[in-house]
Amino acid sequence: MASNQSSLHEGKFSIPSQNLDQQATLELGENDFDYSKRSQWLRAAVLGATDGLVSTAALMLGVGAVKQDIKNMIITGFAGLVAGACSMAIGEFVSVYSQLDIEVAQAKRVKKKKVDGGGERKEGEEEEEEEEKEGMPNPVQAAAASALAFSVGAMVPLLAASFIKDYRVRLGAVVAAVSLALVMFGCLGAALGKAPSTRAAIRVLVGGWLAMAITYGLTKLIGSSGLQ
Predict the structure, then answer these.
(1) DSSP classification of residue 124
(2) How far apart are CA 178 and CA 11, in angstroms?
(3) In terms of C-beta density within 10 A (0-12 exposed, 13-18 middle, 19 or more buried), how is residue 136 classed?
(4) What terms describe the molecular function in GO for this protein (predicted)?
């Protein structure tokens, strides 16, 4: 009698695990999106654009602190754009390639362990391996994204200063244009990653202001000491 009750209880309340997996997959597909999949290219793009904005603007303001000629500011900004884009691309390529090497080595160790264990390949295991390969980081893509984003960001202060001859107005235009762009990039990155946009924008903006102010102030101090 007890065994019959136990069987009835199990038959009434147990749910096949396969149905649970299918239901979870269906719910994830309908309601959720894994925004962490965007982290690789999003991080590279936001970092590149922010760095391009801040570093190029800081260089131009630093030169502008001691040299009021517009030509000096533009040449400095352009040199910063080219050098920074190359540096970001190389750095991102090396970093992501190192990450790729680690993940490939780990995948080989797992595969070798399965082969040495003599276990049979389960159904769908090959598809999982293909998905893992597709999900691995792409060094070339990350490098290109960083260089492009840096160049786009660096163009903002360059364009803001290119057509303004008055020295003070030019400096103000650079700071205003960079500030607006920093807020926009901060909000864009937060929106794509479904993160709070206000905090992201403020964090990026304050950091950019500090970088520009420190560069301008220290260069002005050195320039006023007689080193021209």
Answers:
(1) T
(2) 66
(3) middle
(4) iron ion sequestering activity; iron ion transmembrane transporter activity; manganese ion transmembrane transporter activity
- Kind and range of the H or E element at 30? helix 17-31
Q: Are 110 and 74 in contact (CB under 8 A)?
A: no
Q: How many CB atoms lie within 10 A of CB 96?
A: 21
Ramachandran angles phi, psi of 177, nearest 5°: -65, -45
Tokens of 150: 């840096």
Q: In angstroms, rounded to a whole number, what is the distance separating the alpha carbons of residues 50 and 66?
A: 25
For 56-92, b/e burial (b = at least 16 CB within 10 A) is bbbbbbbbbbbbeebeebbebbeebbeebbeebbeeb
CB of 73 closer than 8 Å to CB of 170: yes
Cβ contact 52:153 at 8 Å? yes
Give the residue from 222, 62, 223, 86 showing the smallest Cα distance to 157: 62
DSSP state of 121: P
Distance, CA of 6 to CA of 22 (rounded, Å): 27
Query: What CA–CA distance (Å, rounded) separates 211 from 157?
Result: 14
Best CA proximity match to 132, nearest among 108, 98, 96: 108
For 50-92, the pLDDT digits (tens) are 889 999 999 999 999 888 889 999 999 999 999 999 998 898 8
For residue 21, give Cα distances in angstroms to 4, 11, 24, 31, 130.
29, 19, 5, 15, 20
CA dist 114 and 86 (Å) reads 42
